[in-house]
Structures are given as C-alpha cells and as structure tokens.
Automatic annotation (TrEMBL):
Belongs to the LysR transcriptional regulatory family. The keyword Ligase does not apply. It comes from Ottowia thiooxydans. This is LysR family carnitine catabolism transcriptional activator. Gene3D superfamilies: Periplasmic binding protein-like II (3.40.190.10), Winged helix-like DNA-binding domain superfamily/Winged helix DNA-binding domain (1.10.10.10). The lineage of its organism: Bacteria, Pseudomonadati, Pseudomonadota, Betaproteobacteria, Burkholderiales. PANTHER family: HTH-TYPE TRANSCRIPTIONAL REGULATOR YBHD (PTHR30419), NITROGEN ASSIMILATION TRANSCRIPTIONAL ACTIVATOR-RELATED (PTHR30419:SF8).
Amino acid sequence: MNVTPRQLRIFLALAESLNFSRTAEKFFVTQPSLSKAVKDLEDELGITLFERSTRSVRLTAAGGRLTAIARRVVGEFDSGIERLHSQAEHEFHQVAIAALPSVANSLLPAVCARLEEKFGNPKFTIYDGTNASTIQRLLTYQVDFALASAAPSHAELEYEEILRDRFVLLAPETWKHVKAKTRMEDLVNLPLISGTDASTAKEYVKAAMLQRGVVFEPKLALDQVGTAAGFVREGLGIIVQPYLGILPLLGLKGMRMCRIIDGPIRSVGIVRRKASSLSAIAEQGVVEAREAAQKLIRQFPAWILSP
C-alpha cells in the first residue's frame, strides 16, 4: 500500500470543509488535481470516501471512520518528523573524539575552543586512552574521528599524518651526569621509566633499542606520565617520552629535559573511517586539528616536526 501523508492531509482537509474549491486553494492545486488525489487514495484503500453530486459533497460512513485513523497517522508522522529534526539539530552540535593522552592535552583544547567559537555551545565527548583503545572506539562508531600514533592496520580506516614529535629524556635536575644532548646508547644502563605494554611510546623505544642490539628492560612501567614524574623528581629514574607527552611536566621543579640526538620520532595523525561521512562540526574538527598541529610545529620547531 502506497498512501502518502499529503494524501491523508488532503483527505482530512476535504472532510472538514466538504468543499473542493476551498481545499484546492489551501493546497495550491487545481480542482481536477485535488479530485485525482482523492480518487487515487480511494483506489489505494479500496473504499469510497466521499459521496459527490453537483450540489454537495459529504463523507461516506467508511470515510467518517477513516478520519480518526488518518488524524492519528498524520499526527504521529508530524511528531516523528519533529523528533528527526530535533535529533539532527542535536547531532549538528555534538562531536566525539578519541585521542592519545599527550595529544588530548596539547592539541584538543585548541580544537574544542575553535569549535565553540564557530558552533556556539556544542557538546564534546572526549576519550583519552591508549592507541589501541582509541582506534577501537573509532571502529565501533563511538567517536567521529581519532588522533592516534602510527597508521592503524585496518582496511576500513585511513590515516593522515599531521605532525611528528621527537622523543626526549626527562631527568632529575640533580643528575649532572646525564648530558643535555645524549644518544640512545647512553640510556642502556640508566634506570628508565616507561609506559606499560599498551603504550605506543614504549613500542617506539623498544624498537629503537632493538635496532642497536639491546633488549629494552625498563626499571618501571607506569600508565600515567604524571605518576612517572613523581619518581623522577625523587631521583628514582628517568622518563623517555615524546615531547608532547612531557610538555605538561616541563614547568615542574626538580627536573630537566635532555635531547636524544638519535632518538625515535613519533608519528601523530588523524584517523577516520573511509566509508563514513562526517557531520559539519566533526569535519570542522578535523580542519581545526590540522591547524592546531601546525601551530605546535611553529611553536616548538626543535621538537615538533612537519609530516
């Protein structure tokens, strides 16, 4: 059965006015077009809705019974359309992003600030977590896009590198034997504090050590860089992390940063689903992420590199 909301609206208007001329004017159609619309509805339903003569129009018994049903159907349709509009408006003003903690700290605030300027008062959902959990949230449609390290090996995802950051060393200020410019081989016998196995930073350091024939065996493996900083401040070890990872710690007393001349360089990029189109606000979020990355590159050229 192919009955349209417009046909039901015409039927209800004619049932109320019982006047083809006024009803045709209301819908901006000719009387013959209105008559055809009514006839098409009658044919579709298999019943006669109106008794027509040269002098009058009136509802049939079946037509009278149909009016209550038609009002309910049209009312539910209008309510559904209103809910769709409301949901569309809601979607237009919300964006969900997953990111590595270091990127969420250094890059996402600027992105969200710009989106607030452009979209009024949007709703942000931000997830900061491991690279694996960040990619998983994208695959399961929990987020619109992700900011992750290294291209994920999923055919349905695409990766756009937006910056690279150098690995640096964060040491206790009292450790004068740690050089301001050091090499990976100098770190072999030092008490290194790394991330856990879920950390991409640890994978980068492990791979760099392996290239030099050394098995990476950190003194401690901690989830949070802030926790590791406390151990560094007490002289219990040193941190080797990407520059963005230790950026929030640089203002803390009792620590100093050292350059690793031949250290690894981490890739950071935007990850999105190939087959999915983004909402206007999410697409703008991608644009702002690129711009925020460029700003970091200009601000810290010694540590943050162009793709």
